[in-house]
């Protein structure tokens, strides 16, 4: 077995080397073909793109093969492989640490490069496509270099190792390890495509709206994957970590959230550029920020400079990532400066009370939010560097600053969907906002009747009802005119996304404000009542194999048997709790078994969280995904000569 | 919609209705925000304090979140202090901070260099809003001017170039 597995290392390294060479030649073909307008040379670029894709796939397959055959000649397999890891988690162990996760990133990137080359195969003579491909190859070269240098998954390990510890216990405890990282990476890496076209637009000087239209779906798809990846991560955290929460503001979570914020700002403000030809510099800056923040986030969480519950600490990769980040930012700034004259927008925004005014306000709020999260994430690093002392910036800081920002965004979601382009009159707003505002009032009334307290959750429920009303109004109007086709298109798909966001905001406000928890010590066959629920310990079960010892307590919650457990992973030595969650539409009853567990004592200490509305976070996330897909299809086509504004009521002559 | 209905709806949506709605919202917010929800249980108080303290041996997690033994130990200390009922939340946290230094504080202090983490977001927010206001002011001043050749070219281009732009407000 070892003999067969031993070929994975050399083959994997060879694949990466072939991929690197192909990426270099691809870059040369794209640059030279474009500069000389030589279509024959340019046609080589897609072939090299395919080669990079095949090479990275080959390297990934080699890594999987090394994991499956437990090829402990490789340092990476020594680090995350184990004979006792089940097949599924052994498969996902490939992306459970730094080197493998960079390999996954590289594979997604090269596949996207293939996608771009394939989609634009008939437009290769277009210099913008040429430069976009060159940019993709350039980013690809960087990641190939990483995998051949500081993050080499095929580096040989010390001889004589016959078994390893397996992946981090948290990464072999839930099925979502299969889906969350790849989907999140599709989002992260996906933003490379619009970034590449932005660079292409800057280099060619075609900084109008053409490149935006080309990359509209790429950007939306990337944003959708990033969103869905973050939601899945929250779900995973909730199901695995045992503290009953969905978001802890840890650096890795923040590293995905910051580009999501700038990406969200971008997919809104890009509409202003498409419609009005304005905000060109701003949109380019947002796109560059989103892409570079994915690199900065990777640096922060993969270089070891910051710690988090799921950061991979490894000191070698940091300088590479930081240098690449600097190169990306510097090159983009220079290009934007160089094309400054062309980027000047001739138009003006007529009124703050307009669709474009709302988008601008939205952009300001999202950008400030991104700054807050970035500052909170890197501030400990700054303090340590300047003052040589340690500091932690945690959940209370982010909550305190995030809540007002979130409420402001909810308010914008109330108003923006009903605003016409250019200008809105007070009368128009009064007409369009009336029923949505009553929707918010009704939601507030229901909340107060149901016993909700506290200004922040109440404001969230009011604004949530208001914003939900505004989004539903738009959908009703669209479907009344166009039937189900009214749900399709950016504006209406966007409203579905808004409803998802509102559900998440309301559910988060409810669960953060009204969660109740209690530690209970249960004796066998003796029911205990707390918070209107009955808990009865009916027994224990124990599972032992060469990987783990798992003790579950059988607890009847309101007559339904649940089995919270504590698992000791023998090679790691630490206890991992597995909560049991009883989900209903109104609340979750989340039960954890608290160590130490003594089966012979006939008692078990459990912690119970009663968490309202949690399931609506996941429903909201699913709606956001559905809305994103709907937004990617073209909606009703508008003739370019149609007026873009609703008619403004005429004012009677004095 | 018939003219009569439209007229009726216009009346319904007039400013007195908005005033009534505003009043209802203010009353509901006041009632909801000020009513007494009963004292916090000990468990709730322990959770609230635990959320403000970092686990000293973990990587950025709060004592509330972490399952590490050091976090468990601090949770127990908090539970003991809460049960004793002599100290306020801030005093309990100050005692823990004295034992472990400021590294266990999840909320940075608002003094000295640490205050920057509070001041900078506010400063950036104020600057961003001021910048936005300045931009709108500049645009308003520009609106009085005669359209430039660029403006005319842009309009002409848009009128002749058909693309699948969507009308976002379908009315």
The rounded distance between the terminal residues' Cα atoms of chain A is: 94 Å
Poorly predicted ranges of chain B:
162-171
Q: Categorize the overall geometry of chain A.
A: flat
Count of β-strands of chain A: 10
Shape of chain B: flat
Which structural class matches the secondary elements of chain A?
alpha+beta
Helical fraction of chain B: 55-70%
SS field, number of helical segments of chain B: 7
Oligomeric state: heterodimer
Main pleated sheet of chain B = none
Summarize model confidence as the mean pLDDT of chain B.
80
By DSSP, the count of extended strands of chain B is 0
Précis, in short:
Chain A is of the alpha+beta class and 654 residues long. Chain A is built from 21 helices and ten strands. Chain B is mostly helical and 171 residues long.
Describe this structure in words.
The complex is a heterodimer of chains A (654) and B (171). Chain A is of the alpha+beta class and 654 residues long. Chain A has a domain at 516-612. Chain A has helices at 2-5, 8-35, 39-42, 44-68, 75-80, 87-92, 98-119, 127-148, 180-190, 192-204, 210-240, 251-276, 280-302, 318-338, 340-343, 355-387, 395-415, 426-449, 455-482, 490-514, 615-632; strands at 516-523, 528-530, 533-544, 548-557, 560-562, 565-569, 575-578, 580-583, 587-593, 603-612. In chain A, the strands form 2 sheets. In chain A, strands 2, 3, 4, 5, 6 and 7 form a 6-stranded antiparallel sheet that branches. In chain A, strands 1-10-9-8 form a 4-stranded antiparallel sheet. Chain A starts with a helix and ends in a 22-residue tail after the last helix. Chain B is mainly α and 171 residues long. Among the domains of chain B are: 42-104, no CATH class; 114-158. Chain B has helices spanning 3-12, 15-34, 42-50, 69-84, 89-100, 116-142, 149-160. In chain B, α3 packs across α4 and α4 runs antiparallel to α5. The two termini of chain B are 13 Å apart. At the A-B interface, α12, α16, α17, α18 and α19 of A face α2, α3, α6 and α7 of B.
């Amino acid at each position: 077995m070892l003999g067969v597995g031993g070929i994975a290392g050399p083959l994997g390294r060879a694949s990466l080397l072939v991929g690197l060479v192909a990426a270099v030649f691809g870059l040369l073909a794209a640059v030279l073909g474009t500069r000389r307008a030589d279509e024959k040379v340019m046609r080589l670029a897609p072939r090299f793109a395919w080669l990079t894709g095949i090479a990275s796939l080959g390297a990934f397959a080699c890594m999987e093969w090394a994991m499956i055959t437990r090829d402990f000649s490789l340092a990476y397999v020594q680090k995350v492989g184990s004979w006792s890891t089940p097949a599924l988690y052994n498969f996902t162990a490939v992306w459970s640490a730094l080197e493998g996760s960079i390999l996954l990133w590289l594979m997604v990137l090269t596949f996207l490069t293939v996608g771009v080359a394939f989609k634009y195969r008939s437009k290769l003579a277009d210099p913008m496509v040429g430069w976009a491909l060159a940019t993709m190859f350039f980013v690809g070269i960087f990641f190939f270099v990483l995998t051949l240098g500081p993050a080499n998954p095929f580096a040989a390990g010390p001889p004589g190792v016959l078994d390893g510890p397996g992946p981090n216990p948290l990464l072999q405890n839930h099925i979502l390890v299969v889906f969350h990282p790849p989907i999140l990476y599709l989002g992260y890496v996906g933003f490379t495509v619009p970034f590449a076209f932005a660079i292409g637009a800057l280099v060619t000087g075609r900084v109008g709206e053409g490149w935006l239209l080309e990359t509209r779906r790429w950007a939306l798809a990337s944003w959708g994957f990033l969103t869905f990846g973050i939601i899945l991560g929250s779900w995973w955290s909730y199901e695995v970590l045992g503290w009953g929460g969905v978001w802890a503001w840890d650096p890795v979570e923040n590293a995905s959230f910051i580009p999501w914020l700038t990406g969200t700002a971008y997919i809104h403000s890009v509409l202003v550029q498409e419609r009005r030809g304005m905000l060109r510099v701003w949109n380019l800056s947002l796109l560059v920020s989103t892409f570079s923040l994915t690199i900065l986030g990777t640096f922060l969480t993969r270089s070891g400079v910051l710690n988090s519950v799921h950061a991979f600490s490894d000191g070698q990769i940091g300088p590479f990532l930081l240098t690449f980040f600097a190169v990306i930012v510097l090159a983009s700034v220079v290009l934007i400066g160089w094309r400054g004259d062309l980027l000047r927008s001739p138009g003006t925004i007529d009124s703050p009370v307009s669709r474009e005014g709302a988008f601008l306000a939205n952009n300001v709020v999202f950008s400030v939010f991104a700054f807050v999260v970035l500052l909170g994430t890197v501030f400990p690093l700054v303090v340590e560097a300047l003052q040589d002392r340690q500091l932690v910036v945690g959940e209370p800081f982010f909550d305190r600053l995030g809540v007002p920002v979130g409420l402001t965004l909810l308010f914008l979601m109330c108003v923006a969907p009903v605003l016409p382009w250019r200008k809105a009159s007070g009368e128009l707003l009064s007409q369009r906002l009336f029923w949505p505002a009553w929707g918010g009032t009704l939601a507030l009334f229901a909340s107060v009747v149901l016993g909700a307290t506290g200004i922040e959750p109440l404001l969230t429920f009011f604004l949530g009802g208001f914003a939900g009303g505004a989004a539903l109004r738009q959908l009703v109007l669209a479907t009344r005119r166009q039937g189900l086709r009214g749900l399709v298109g950016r504006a209406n798909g966007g409203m579905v996304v808004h409803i998802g966001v509102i559900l998440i905001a309301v559910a988060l406000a409810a669960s953060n404000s009204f969660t109740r928890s209690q530690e209970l010590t249960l004796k066998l066959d003796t029911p205990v009542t707390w918070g209107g629920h009955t808990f009865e310990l009916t027994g224990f079960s124990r599972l032992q194999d060469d990987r783990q010892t798992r003790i579950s307590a059988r607890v009847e919650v309101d007559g339904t048997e649940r089995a919270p457990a504590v698992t000791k992973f023998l090679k790691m030595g630490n206890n991992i709790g597995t909560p049991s969650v009883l989900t209903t539409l109104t609340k979750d009853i989340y039960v954890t078994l608290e160590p130490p567990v003594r089966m012979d004592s006939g008692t078990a200490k459990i912690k119970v969280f009663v968490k309202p509305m949690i399931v609506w976070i996941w429903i909201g996330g699913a709606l956001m995904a559905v809305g994103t897909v709907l937004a990617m299809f073209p909606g009703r086509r508008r003739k370019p000569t149609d007026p873009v504004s609703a008619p403004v009521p005429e004012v009677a002559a004095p | 919609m018939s003219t009569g209905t439209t007229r009726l709806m216009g009346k319904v949506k007039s400013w007195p209705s908005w005033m009534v709605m505003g009043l209802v919202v203010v009353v509901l917010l006041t009632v909801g925000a000020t009513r007494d929800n009963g004292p916090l249980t000990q468990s709730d108080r322990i959770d609230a304090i635990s959320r403000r303290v970092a686990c000293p041996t973990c990587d950025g997690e709060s004592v509330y979140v972490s399952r590490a033994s050091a976090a468990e130990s601090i949770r127990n200390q908090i539970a003991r202090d809460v049960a004793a009922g002599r100290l306020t939340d801030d005093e309990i946290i100050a005692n823990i901070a004295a034992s472990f230094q400021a590294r266990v504080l999840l909320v940075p202090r608002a003094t000295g260099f640490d205050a920057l983490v509070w001041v900078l977001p506010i400063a950036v927010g104020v600057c961003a809003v001021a910048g936005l206001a300045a931009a709108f002011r500049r645009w308003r001043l520009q609106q009085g001017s005669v359209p430039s050749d660029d403006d005319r070219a842009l309009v002409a281009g848009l009128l002749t170039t058909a693309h699948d732009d969507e009308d976002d407000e379908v009315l």
